[in-house]
Every structure is written in structure tokens, then in C-alpha cells.
Fold these 2 entries.
Entry 1:
Amino acid sequence: MTTAAGVLAALAGIAASEALAAVLDLRESPVLSVGQSVIELTPGPIAEAIIGVVGTADKPLAIASVIVAILLLGALAGRWWVARRVAACALVGVLVVLAAASILSRPYASAPGVFACVAAGVVVMGVLELLLSAGERKPADLARRGFLRTFGIIAVATAVVGVGSQALATRRRRRQEIEDVRASLTLPSRRVSAPAGTDLQVAGQEPWLTSNRDFYRIDTTLSPPLIDPADWTLRIHGMVDREITLTYQDLLDRGLTDAWITICCVSNTVGGDLIGNTVWGGVPIKGILEEVGIQSGADALLSTSEDGWTCGTPLAALTDGRDALLALTMNGEPLPVPHGFPVRQVVPGLYGYVSATKWVTDWEVTRFADFQAYWTQRGWGERGPIKTQSRIDVPRNSDSVDVGDVTIAGVAWAQHTGIEKVEVRVDEGEWREATIAESPSVDTWVQWKIDWSAQKGDHVIQVRATDRTGETQTAERADVLPDGATGYHGIQVSAG
Ligand SMILES: Nc1nc2c(c(=O)[nH]1)N[C@H]1C(S)=C(S)[C@@H](COP(=O)(O)O)O[C@H]1N2
Ligand SMILES: [Mo]
């Protein structure tokens, strides 16, 4: 019993240290570090003899022997725990000190690494205490049952933590590999700044050009797919004359087109911030579809991502000449991993859920009548054209402003139609037309601003936009479900 408790306590300690190493993102876990130290401290001739026998398995062998040694010493600590507590604690303490010394002697010596060793020691003693001390004051029968139950619980927890931390560590390494590949790519488009006149530079206003870092992110994945561009392919099939499979290099060979496009989420509430604007670099989807030849009767492109998310896009929007792209870059950089690296779709004028497939790997040309995509299965609209909207960014809702001159500013969007005018009213008075900034295309949002002479008291400010077909956004409030929110954005401020 005491031996089993000791071994389990040692395993729990190892699992805890591995978990901390994974969570704290350590270069080496304590076990790995001690294994390295063992290899380095093994005298040359002995090391050579070992390598002669086991070959390149010397590293796994070193780690395995470290683990076996820890388990044996754990068993010993278990046997000593009840009768020779001080000796048992000292044994655990010596192990912790040795592991910490090993960590500190490594090139990437780290305080968190030492912390992981100490925590492991605490876990070992905690488990021994739980398993072996609780039974001391109970009749043998009860004690045995209690021991088995506690033993089972700790064993399961140890297994879960152990496996989980290995999985996390593996994923971390893979993410780093993909980030390194991404950083080493040199693509033919470069980071750019906002074209002149697009940003009104009103203090507190969101920039016209959204940085990759600040770009909203929406997807159904818990952790983004990690795809090496060298392995990426896009299979195109369905109602086409020729099935083809494209590689990343195929796309690069076609040359990248840059386009300013504001994308937004159907879940963006009135006044919300699930919207961002940047320059995307990619290959026009239209040309690719012409190459494969769309058969008559097809009206949809069903795209699937590496993680199995699906999206149905009207073929009309992909072939009418707008800048619908298979994008490789976002503001001149390879797509960030969370935004679809290595390749995603971007289509002006459609909400993301029906157009902007990230990590896209499969295209089926088909009919809307023949499938339902991820969100349409869940009650969202089939087509998802973006609704004209406007938002007040300055002042903020509930702000206090000074009496007198106040600048009201914000953004408005009607992707692929363009914004004709933006109007603002205070306290349901007359609509007054705001100044609209420049925009390089009808596919982006525009900034607007207007001066207001605030009088003392509380006020309600509202905004509305009119698109270039002359249609003014509706005042009628609609929820985001099923196909996008409507209504005027309004804020309350008090002037004093
Ligand atoms: N693979 C995949 N692509 C996806 C999604 C997703 O869940 N999975 N979400 C879509 C939705 S709803 C939106 S609004 C946009 C958001 O893109 P972003 O995260 O780059 O801003 O991605 C779209 N592409
Ligand atoms: Mo979305």
C-alpha cells in the first residue's frame, strides 16, 4: 500500500511538473532538464558505451531512467511516510533541489522552471498525506476503502493532467513551427498605410485601417488549425468541367491582387465592433472558377475549412467582378494563424459566415437547394448580404462632454454599394449631413464627422447612413438573427 502510494505520488508530481511546464511554456520540463543533465554528466566512455548499445535512443533512455528513478524514490518516500516522516520529506526535498539545480544550470535557466520543481514536490507530499495519513485513525476496513477511492481519484487526475499537458506541449511546439514558417515567408505584398484622406484622425475614433492585432476574430474552433503552406491544397470539384487541386505555390504563381475590403460579422449588433478593415492580398476567385468551368444550374460555392466548418456563397457574388479573393495576406503580411493562415476567402458585401472561410481546403460548386452550411443549419439566413449600417465612435455612450463645440464621429458601411451620405440628429431633431472621408473603394467602411454645439443637459445622438443606390438604412430594430441587425445606432451623453 505504501509503495503504491509512493509511486502514484511520484507520478502525480511528474504530471504536475509537466502540466506547469506546458502552461508556463517552459523550454524544458523538469524531467527533460534532469534527463539532459544526466546525459551531460555521464562520463564520456560510459556514454559512448551506452550509445554503442542503444544508438540514438540514448535520450529517451536517459529520460526513462530519470522517470524510473523518480518512481523508485517515490516508492521509498511512500514506505517512509508514516514512520519516518522527516526522512521521507527530506528525500522529496533533495529531489526538488536536484531538479531545480539542473534547471538553473541549463542555458534557459528559469524561475518558473524552479517553481514547477517545487510545485511537484508539494504535490508529491500532498498525495502521500492524502493517501497514507487519512487512514491512520480509522479502522482497517474503512481505511482500506477510503485509500482505494482516493487512490483511484488521484490516479485518474494524474492521467488526465499528464496526457493533457503532453497534448498541450505538442500543440505549442506545432504552433511555433507554423509561426516560424509564416515568419520566413516572403510574399509579394507589403504592409501599407491608409490611403490619404481616409482617416479623419478624430481623437478616440477607431482607425480607418484596422491592425491585424486589433482585427476582430470569429470562428467556431477552440484552437486554430495549424497548416504548413507546403502541405496546403484546395480541392475544387462538384459541378465543374475540370476538377483541380491548387497548391500554395500555384496561387503565388498567379500573382496576388491587393484589395481594400471591410469584413464584418452577422452577429455584430447595432453599434458593435465585429468589423474590421484592411488590405487583403490574394488571387481573384472569379478567374479560378472560370478555369474549372462552372456547369449550368450551379448557384453556390460550398467551401469547407480544414477543421470542417462549412460555408455557402452565392456564385453570383464570386463571379460578378467584385474583388472576391482567395487571400494569402492581410495588411501585407501572411495571414495571421487565427485569421486563416495560409489561405482564406474574402468577399466584399457578404457577412463572414457566408463568405470568409478561413483555413479553406475544399470547394464544391453546387446548388443552394442541395446543402446547408454550418450556420444555415442553425437558423441563419442562406445568402447573408451585408446591411447598410453606421456607428458613432466619438463621444462614447454615457460620456460627459463640455458645453459648446463637440465633434461627433464614427464609421458607416455598405460594402460593395458604397456610402452616399451619413446624417446625424440630436434629441430627435433635424437630420444634419456629416462630412464623409475618402475611401479607396466601395468595399470599405468610411469615416464621418460632424460638429455639434452642445447645450447643457442630457442628449441623445443618432446616426443613419444612405447607400449609393439612394437607400437609407432602416430605423426598424432587428436582432442579429437570422441575417443581421438593423436600426439606428444611438448614444446618450450629458453636457455640462
Ligand atoms: N474556418 C472558419 N472560417 C470562418 C469562420 C469559422 O468559424 N471557421 N467564421 C466566419 C465568420 S462568422 C466570420 S464573421 C469571419 C471572421 O473572420 P476573422 O476572424 O478573420 O475576423 O470568418 C468566417 N470564417
Ligand atoms: Mo460572423
Note: The CA atoms of residues 305 and 360 lie 4 Å apart.
Entry 2:
Amino acid sequence: MKRNTGQDRTITSGWRPATRAIRGGTARSEWGETSEALFLTSGYSYDRAGDAAARFAGEQVGMTYSRLQNPTTEMLEERIALLEGSEACRTTATGMAAMTAALLCQLQAGDHVVAGRAAFGSCRWLTDTLLPKFGIGSTIVDGRDPQQWADAAQANTKLFFFETPANPTMDIVDLKAVCGIARDRGIRTVVDNAFATPALQRPLEWGADITAYSATKMMDGQGRVLAGAVCGTAEFINGELLPFIRNTGPTLAPFNAWVVLKGLETLDLRIRRQSENALKVAAFLERRVPRVNYPGLASHPQHALAMSQMDMAGPIFSLEVAGREQAHALLDALELIDISNNIGDSRSLMTHPASTTHAGVSAETREQMGVGEGLLRLNVGLEDVDDLVDDLGRALDRVGL
Ligand SMILES: *Cc1c(COP(=O)(O)O)cnc(C)c1O
């Protein structure tokens, strides 16, 4: 009988997702602890000088330095890879470190990237500001329209980069169509899957090459730590991403890795309940405000597409009121839901993107992205949904909506 098999793919690949989330990647120490051990160590020691030389030469299995490897972090990487259905995963200190590494490790001067218009503010900064500084061109398209991706592809296009659902407009990209367009042209796709997570959407199954995460959001799920992850083939992760990360150093701290490991154990439960709550809150708001952008609602223009590639629509959506003044007044009238720009938390949080998360992009770019002055983004948490509806109802009454 074989036990402690969380690291053995011949066994874990037979496990269903819920089992992978609890046990995948677990590597027990000599003490047989049930919960994953936290290895807070920067270095490792060797019995003999020859062992150190052999490990550095890659001839002996074992760890050398925690910028390169750490047992707790490797447990998390194996667990995320199992949930994602990817050959390999590498974690990073933040979601933005994951996005930056996923792009820069495979691009060079003269290359070109096509990216979706709606994106996390810092992701737009990467494509619009950072890449051009290094001679890498970028074209921004309306990600909802596959034809725009096809038209924007050039001979030197190396990557398609997008989020779906996208932050904060909830634009949906047709994964099968857009990844197919990329494949036909030898272009790789990098999908920022932070909103859905592998619990609700697995882009690799639709033909994406690489997925990247802010694990700060749903994977931690309780607003505690920052973390990121990149998933793909072993060839890509070990051959292209790893040298970049090991030498530039955006390494995830073992403590944060441990927190996210614990978070993943409840990811499926949390994201399903939060999605149910979000659907109820969105249906309530739809009757009260001019516009609600939630792919789970039948009124969303891409509802059918979203539901064909996602199991549920997730905990996050946006709504539109008259302008900045009314948006701020609505936030100020809330008593339970926090004014906070984080998402993925078990607490309900609401923010005004134009003056917070997207304040760093120009007004013109915000306009192009669909981030208007009256847009609000809501992360629906695990509280009793009736308390959330009561809070929003009261706040809407106060601002006259
Ligand atoms: C939060 C977020 C990021 C950045 O992640 P950090 O962990 O904050 O660095 C990137 N993409 C999306 C879609 C996000 O929501």
C-alpha cells in the first residue's frame, strides 16, 4: 500500500478535482504531519562538499536556495498544476510578477503582442508602457470580437494576452475561437484567469498555451497574502519561465505559499457559493440601476458564450450609475459592504475603478476599455446574501436610485 502520494502524478492524475484541491502536491516530512509543513528557510545544507557540487550540477536531487526551490512552495505549485490540468506551474510573489514574467521570459525586441482592451490596470501598463520601452510592439483590440484578434496578428506577433472575464467590464473572450486563431498562426496565448480560477474555467482545455494568476484573489480567498502563478507545459515552465524567475527573483515567500495552499482546499466551495450570491445580488441590482455587467445574467450580451466556457459566472461583476458623484455617494451609503479595491475575498467589497484601480491609465484609455465614470465593481462574498441585498437596497434608496 502506497501513501503520501500527493507528489506522484501517476496517482494524482486519477484523482477528481475536489481531491486534488485537498491532497494534491502534499509532500510529507519524516514527521508525518497531516497539514502541509511550512519550511521557513532560505538555504539548505549538505552532508558533504561533493553533495553541494552535485546538487548545483543538477546531478543530485535536492534543494539549494529558496529563490530557486522551497518544499512548501513546490507543494503549492504541484497543487495548482493539478487543478489547472497543466504539466507544470511556477508561483511568484504577486499576480503582476506572474504576468510580467510570463510575458518577458518569452519576448524580445522586435516581437509584437496583441492584447485585449479590458484588463487589470497594471496589465495594460505592461502592454502599453513597459513592452514598447524594450522594442516590443503591442496592439490593443476589443477582445470580445475574434475577428479583431485575427486582423491584428502580424508576422512578428508572438503572443495574444487577455483576461476573460476581464476586469472590470466583464468582457468575455471566446477562448476556443481566439486560441484557435493563435494556433493557426503559430502564436501563443497567455490567459489571465484570475477571475474564474481553474475551479470555474480551464483555458488550457480550450487551446490556450499558458495561464497566469493573481493567487491573491480567489486562490487565497480571504484577503491575506499576495501571490501569483504561471501554468503551462513543462518545456515552457522549466525551459523559459524558470530561468527568468530564478535569476530575476520574484519568488513567492514560503509563508504566503502555505496560506494559499490552505486557501485552495476551500476554493471550489467558496467560488461556487460566492457565484450563487453574486447571481442573486446582480439580479436584484438589475432592477435598480441603469446597467449591470454580469455574465451570469441572461441580459449580459455574452451570457451564452460565458456559460459555454465557465461552470459558473464567478463572484465579481460591475454596475453602472450616472457618474462619479453618484458612484461615490453609493459607496459612502453602504454600511456592510466595504469600500475596497481588492477582489476574491470572502468579504463583499466594492470600488470605483476610474478613481482607484484604473486611475493610473489615461482617461482616454479608460474610455476605450469601457471603464466609465459611473462604473462600480463589486466582489460578492460569503455573507448571507439577504444582508448584502439589504445593504445595497438601503444605499440605493439613499442616493435616490
Ligand atoms: C489583481 C489582479 C492582477 C494583479 O495581481 P496582484 O496579485 O495584485 O499583483 C492581475 N490580473 C487581474 C485580473 C487581477 O485581478
Note: The first strand starts at residue 88 and ends at 92.
